[in-house]
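Write out the bound-state structure for magnesium ion.
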Amino acid sequence: MTMTNSQTNLSGPTAKTTVPEKFVYFFAAGESEGNAGMKNTLGGKGANLAEMTSLGIPVPPGFTISTDICTHFNESGGKIPDWVKPKVLEAMARVEAKIGKKFGDVKNPLLVSVRSGARASMPGMMDTILNLGLNDQTVEGLAKSSNNPRFAWDSYRRFIQMYSDVVMGVNGSLLEVTLEDLKEDKHYKLDTELTVDDLKILVKKFKELVQQLTGHSFPSEPWEQLWGAVSAVFRSWNTPRAITYRELHSIPVSWGTAVNVQSMVFGNMGDDSATGVAFTRDPSTGEKTFYGEFLINAQGEDVVAGIRTPQPITKKAALSSGAVSLEEAMPEAYAELVAIYQRLEKHYRDMQDIEFTIESNKLWMLQTRNGKRTAKASLQIACDMIDEKLITNEEAILRLDPAALDQLLHPTLDPKAQKTQLAKGLPASPGGVHGQIVFTSEEAVEWKEKGLKVILVRVETSPEDIAGMIAAQGILTTRGGMTSHAAVVARGMGKCCVAGCGEVEVDYRTETMKVKGYVLKKGDVLTLDGSTGEVFLGEVKTIEPRLDERFDRIMKLADSIRRLGVRANADTPKDAETARKFGAEGIGLCRTEHMFFGADRIDAVREMITADNRMDRERALAKLLPMQRDDFAQLFKIMDGFPVTIRLLDPPLHEFVPHTDPEIKDLAQRLGQDFERLRMKIKALHEFNPMLGHRGCRLAVTYPEIYQMQVRAIAEAACDVVKAGQKLIPEIMIPLIATDKELDMLRTLSVNEVEKVQRERGVSFKYLVGTMIELPRAAVTADAIAEHADFFSFGTNDLTQTTLGLSRDDAGRFLGSYVSQGILPQDPFVSIDQVGVGALVKMGVELGRRTKPDLKVGVCGEHGGDPDSIEFFHKVGLDYVSCSPFRVPIARLAAARATLLSKKLHS
Ligand code: ADP
Ligand code: MG
Ligand code: MG
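---
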């Protein structure tokens, strides 16, 4: 193979490369080789360009180089394989034949755009180059053939700006400055005022600058330009901002991007030309109105770049601003645009986000895709489209993104409020909150106890900060990504969090934070927007989430479809109430240890832990009994007949005791004990690896009286509730079981205690005793364990830790690299590792049901609220998922989708 004229790196096929059969897809009226179903190969943009072309919609001809080539490119160290080239030359020849212009021709040059396009739309992630093919000769040809030198030179200067930025890595603002300087000299306000001579000067200056800055001259050969641009698109798949976006949206690195090479149409040809973007319905409210913006005599990104203020498309929208709409300025092109958008919406049966250009009054479509929308709009559009009979109930459910509902469930910042943005970090966990800043967790807790609202500001958080995170309204960290400790924990708590906000400088010593020239001291007020990652000065007003009738309608629809039950993890009456409000059908996990931390009981807990003998321990436990009984009774009442799963004490005991001498001294005084003795006792509790230490059911093997007290509290509370005439089903859950013998023993203990209480009180009620499956051994021996269990609940947090052999609290340091390098597809603590941990879940279910065919099985790890994991749990036959109260609606919707998806798979 001989290749012509290219300085870009081309390489021969490596040993393992397999050359795909077809990898260049042509599109032009009457001969489109792709279609909308080929997004994996053509990317979203390419697939839809092909589809629109087939529909007879005017689309400038071009071709798409498939996503496979991106993978080849990256695997061969950033080189375009040389077998790609002939096919591209061939496709370009077909475009030339269609248009009647030649690429690189000095008389009548064909110009192209080079556009990226991944499978999933990644707006603004990768850069597009327009007007490619221009050089000092072809620009003259274009000037003559168009009879419009200003347009030709304007296109040329735009091309140099884009190309040198995207391909040659020249900081775009440096060229922009040159342009701004010239405008200032000439007293111009707008780019459109630049004359041909101005533009010629600019082109010359730009090229000199590029030479100076890069040491390379600006490439003039069109094919060299093209290969450079194609390579740049492939490279852009791995730019930091693309990587961040991919991580945020769980897009695997292996997908790659396609490249679209498309003949140019020109919105900058004069006042009868324009460019614009539009949505077929309002993307923020969902209202059924055509919504969009355009600019006359402009190209591509001008509309979004804010160079000039764009004008509204419809007359109606223009009314308030007094601007001239497209409807008025170019009525014919507008009418065609309306006809096309309506057709596209009917064809795709979804709201479309479209891009168009008008060249000398002729409309061209450059892109269509399903439009991104707020959660509110998505519900409105789903309901409207069901009513319009455009989609079925099932389709509506399948289209909704469960995770996006999160936006609706937290208070949000009032969009109309005045605000001063200080910085922007990662939108780690949604919500809009304000509070006074503090820099330590201890202070967060203290201030909260004084009734103050605080924002916890940390460089990063660690497990020691949990109490502070609970106490804070929101969390701001300056380091760490979307899977950092702060982000994961905050999401689990449904707490607002902005993570990795690098602009903010935190100084723990002086208790200040610096950002954008502001210095904020401890106690100053900040507002966080966890949905956008923004940080604002002072208090910004919020609005409560309003769950309107559309939300209810969709939830009811989801409930009528789903098979999985949805419960909530709730430790307090407040959690339980929230859970009910969001439609939880029970509590799947009540962690009793959270009740131990209450100010009124923590000392009794500590007395119990540091007791020397069983008698002392029982004395302390007796103090706790009535408190626990009240806790449980309240939960039973709120859950009103729905099942409540109560996990007996799980964490290692040293988590409850103080560790510094002054604190221990205080405690000794309060308990009336000897300081030295207490100190030694506490020291003896130290463990090298607490996660694998003396915790869970192991506590009850050594101190059965702890579980005995808790079971008694549950049983007594149940008796009280039954006496009050209410129904209930308490489920006693034993954590961290590894062997059937453990469960056999602790089940007997529990049953004996419940029966004792029932006899004492003369009351009977139905109850279950079950276990968490959170150790691999338990999953593997689930048939034996099921002999002693009425139910299983998979504790997938610990099961993930113990299966992968990694501690969640330490994994933050390296897990990010695992995900970004594609070793793990996702953070396994966020979405269940289906092939590993998931296999154990599947095995546990199968073995358990082999022993007890109608064994009730659920999950109570964080994964219970993750849509992908829920789909998996549906498939392996769980009965229910349990998640944080705020995620209950998400789980209801995700469970309905799981049902529909598996039906689809089977039909
Ligand atoms: P993004 O993925 O960021 O939306 P696009 O590839 O859609 O990038 O390009 C951005 C804009 O550039 C388009 O909306 C369109 O206005 C303009 N553009 C792209 N290709 C062409 C073309 N062949 N002719 C005219 N304008 C184009
Ligand atoms: Mg676009
Ligand atoms: Mg656990």
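---
Residues 60, 113, 115, 124, 128, 130, 262, 264-265, 275, 300-301, 355, 357, 366-367 surround adenosine-5'-diphosphate (ligand 1) (CB under 6 Å).
The longest helix spans residues 614-639.
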